Amino acid sequence: MASAVVTGSAGGIGSATVNALEAAGFTVGGVDVDDDADAVFGALDRLDVLVCAHGISGRRLGDGPVDTCTEEAWDAVLEANLRSVFLYCKRAVPLLRAAEGGAIVTVSSVLGLVGGDEDFATHAYAASKAGVIGLTRAMAVAYAKDGIRCNVVCPGLIETSMSRRAQEDAGIRARLAELQPLTGDFGRPEDVAQAVVYLATAPFVTGAVLPVDGGWTAR
Predict the structure, then answer these.
(1) pLDDT tens across 70-96, in order?
(2) One of 88, 125, 143, 198 is an active-site residue; which one?
(3) Burial (CB count <10 Å: 0-12, 13-18, 19+), residue 16
(4) Environment class of 90 (CB within 10 Å of its CB; exposed 0-12, middle 13-18, buried 19+)
(5) What is the DSSP string of 54-102?
(6) pTM for this model (two decimals)
(7) Any catalytic annotation for residue 198?
């Protein structure tokens, strides 16, 4: 049976991804903030898919526009959202090579693709998520010869605990028809999970950047 590791597995998108991969026939190991990644990876006989679905917003740490973003917030967000992805992928690539191919799927954000206005001006977060896109596409080129497919999902506003501030902001809710015109509402974690499963199992897709955003980035 094919096996997968999902980081951020206790979060909204991560837990939905675990469920979706299990429904697709994968044996899934989850890694969250308090888990020992060495134990999870060490228990594997093989690895077929790595999904990096973890991340933090950074706003409570002082993230914001460049002129007000604190250096502490910048360092913490880049560490949590980008360096950690690099480290998980560094660990996964030899295992995927040993399995003669597989997939890495990373979770970025629409804010890695487009600039956020005053409601979404967290520049460390945007930089970290843009970095995830660049890293994933670079890996797609580097590891194509090994049969390792690397793709990235870019969610819009999804109804998770991480987006609670936006969910409780009447001004942002009033903008949903503009921001995500397909539904005029928040997306569901399952919407992102379905996209992850597709990219994890699509044999001729690599280097793709797939928005799951209700139309946000189509404008």
Answers:
(1) 999 999 999 999 999 999 999 999 999
(2) 125
(3) buried
(4) exposed
(5) -----GGGT--STTT--HHHHHHHHIIIIIHHHHHHHHHHHHHHHTT-E
(6) 0.95
(7) no
